[in-house]
Protein backbone atom coordinates (compact mmCIF):
# COMPACT_ATOMS: atom_id res chain seq x y z
CA UNK A 1 0.00 0.00 0.00
CA UNK A 2 2.85 2.36 0.83
CA UNK A 3 4.38 1.69 -2.59
CA UNK A 4 1.12 2.58 -4.34
CA UNK A 5 0.85 5.81 -2.34
CA UNK A 6 4.47 6.73 -3.12
CA UNK A 7 4.03 6.11 -6.86
CA UNK A 8 0.79 8.13 -6.88
CA UNK A 9 2.44 11.00 -5.00
CA UNK A 10 5.36 11.09 -7.45
CA UNK A 11 2.96 11.07 -10.40
CA UNK A 12 0.97 13.96 -8.96
CA UNK A 13 4.13 15.95 -8.26
CA UNK A 14 5.30 15.46 -11.84
CA UNK A 15 1.95 16.56 -13.24
CA UNK A 16 1.84 19.59 -10.95
CA UNK A 17 5.36 20.64 -11.90
CA UNK A 18 4.23 21.07 -15.50
CA UNK A 19 1.30 23.34 -14.65
CA UNK A 20 3.35 26.16 -13.14
CA UNK A 21 6.57 27.44 -14.65
CA UNK A 22 9.53 27.17 -12.28
CA UNK A 23 10.55 30.60 -10.93
CA UNK A 24 14.18 30.28 -12.04
CA UNK A 25 13.18 29.21 -15.55
CA UNK A 26 10.66 32.06 -15.76
CA UNK A 27 13.36 34.53 -14.71
CA UNK A 28 15.71 33.17 -17.38
CA UNK A 29 13.04 33.53 -20.08
CA UNK A 30 12.24 37.08 -18.96
CA UNK A 31 15.90 38.08 -18.87
CA UNK A 32 16.57 36.66 -22.35
CA UNK A 33 13.64 38.69 -23.70
CA UNK A 34 14.40 41.93 -21.82
CA UNK A 35 17.97 41.94 -23.13
CA UNK A 36 16.51 42.24 -26.63
CA UNK A 37 13.38 44.31 -26.06
CA UNK A 38 12.38 46.17 -22.88
CA UNK A 39 9.07 47.26 -24.42
CA UNK A 40 7.38 43.85 -24.47
CA UNK A 41 5.41 42.46 -21.53
CA UNK A 42 5.12 39.04 -19.93
CA UNK A 43 1.67 37.45 -20.25
CA UNK A 44 0.47 34.74 -17.86
CA UNK A 45 -2.08 33.76 -20.51
CA UNK A 46 0.67 33.20 -23.09
CA UNK A 47 2.66 31.27 -20.46
CA UNK A 48 -0.28 28.86 -20.20
CA UNK A 49 -0.69 28.74 -23.98
CA UNK A 50 3.03 27.92 -24.30
CA UNK A 51 2.48 24.82 -22.17
CA UNK A 52 -0.51 23.89 -24.34
CA UNK A 53 1.72 24.38 -27.40
CA UNK A 54 4.32 21.99 -26.00
CA UNK A 55 1.64 19.35 -25.52
CA UNK A 56 -0.18 19.93 -28.83
CA UNK A 57 1.47 22.46 -31.20
CA UNK A 58 -1.30 22.48 -33.78
CA UNK A 59 -3.88 23.78 -31.29
CA UNK A 60 -2.11 27.05 -30.40
CA UNK A 61 -1.43 30.03 -32.65
CA UNK A 62 0.97 32.92 -32.07
CA UNK A 63 2.45 35.77 -34.10
CA UNK A 64 5.96 34.50 -33.41
CA UNK A 65 7.34 31.34 -31.81
CA UNK A 66 10.82 30.55 -30.51
CA UNK A 67 11.38 26.88 -29.65
CA UNK A 68 14.29 25.28 -27.87
CA UNK A 69 15.26 21.78 -26.89
CA UNK A 70 18.41 20.67 -25.15
CA UNK A 71 19.64 17.45 -23.59
CA UNK A 72 21.80 17.52 -20.48
CA UNK A 73 23.71 14.69 -18.78
CA UNK A 74 21.67 13.03 -16.04
CA UNK A 75 24.23 14.10 -13.43
CA UNK A 76 24.07 17.82 -14.40
CA UNK A 77 23.17 19.57 -11.15
CA UNK A 78 22.83 23.11 -12.51
CA UNK A 79 19.56 24.90 -11.75
CA UNK A 80 16.59 24.84 -14.10
CA UNK A 81 17.19 28.55 -14.69
CA UNK A 82 20.73 27.91 -15.94
CA UNK A 83 19.54 25.00 -18.08
CA UNK A 84 16.81 27.21 -19.56
CA UNK A 85 19.36 29.92 -20.35
CA UNK A 86 21.70 27.38 -21.95
CA UNK A 87 18.89 25.88 -24.03
CA UNK A 88 17.63 29.24 -25.32
CA UNK A 89 20.62 31.60 -25.45
CA UNK A 90 21.58 30.69 -29.04
CA UNK A 91 17.92 30.66 -30.14
CA UNK A 92 17.49 34.22 -28.89
CA UNK A 93 20.70 35.35 -30.58
CA UNK A 94 19.45 33.81 -33.84
CA UNK A 95 16.01 35.46 -33.49
CA UNK A 96 17.25 38.68 -31.87
CA UNK A 97 16.21 40.99 -34.69
CA UNK A 98 12.65 39.61 -34.65
CA UNK A 99 12.34 40.11 -30.88
CA UNK A 100 13.88 43.61 -31.07
CA UNK A 101 11.38 44.58 -33.79
CA UNK A 102 8.28 43.64 -31.79
CA UNK A 103 6.21 46.79 -31.22
CA UNK A 104 5.85 48.31 -27.77
CA UNK A 105 3.07 46.64 -25.80
CA UNK A 106 3.47 43.26 -27.47
CA UNK A 107 3.05 40.29 -25.14
CA UNK A 108 5.04 37.11 -24.65
CA UNK A 109 4.93 34.01 -22.50
CA UNK A 110 7.16 30.98 -22.26
CA UNK A 111 7.01 27.54 -20.74
CA UNK A 112 8.87 24.27 -20.71
CA UNK A 113 8.63 20.60 -20.01
CA UNK A 114 11.60 19.06 -18.23
CA UNK A 115 12.00 15.29 -18.17
CA UNK A 116 14.62 12.99 -16.71
CA UNK A 117 15.31 9.69 -18.44
CA UNK A 118 17.65 6.87 -17.46
CA UNK A 119 20.55 8.62 -19.23
CA UNK A 120 19.64 12.29 -19.70
CA UNK A 121 17.69 15.34 -18.65
CA UNK A 122 15.67 16.85 -21.50
CA UNK A 123 14.42 20.43 -21.57
CA UNK A 124 11.83 21.23 -24.23
CA UNK A 125 10.54 24.80 -24.20
CA UNK A 126 8.85 27.51 -26.20
CA UNK A 127 8.15 31.24 -26.13
CA UNK A 128 5.01 32.60 -27.80
CA UNK A 129 4.62 36.22 -28.89
CA UNK A 130 1.54 38.30 -29.65
CA UNK A 131 2.24 41.55 -31.49
CA UNK A 132 0.36 44.64 -30.43
CA UNK A 133 -1.82 45.55 -33.37
Automatic annotation (TrEMBL):
Annotated signal sequence range: 1-17
Domain of life: Eukaryota
Keyword Signal annotated: yes
Keywords associated with the record: Signal
Name this protein carries in UniProt: Ribonuclease
Species, as recorded: Haemonchus contortus
Amino acid sequence: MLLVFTVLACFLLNVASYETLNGQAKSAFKELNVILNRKIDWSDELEKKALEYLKSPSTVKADMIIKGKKTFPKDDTSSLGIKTWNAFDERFKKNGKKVRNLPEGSKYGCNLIFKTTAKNQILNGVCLYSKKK
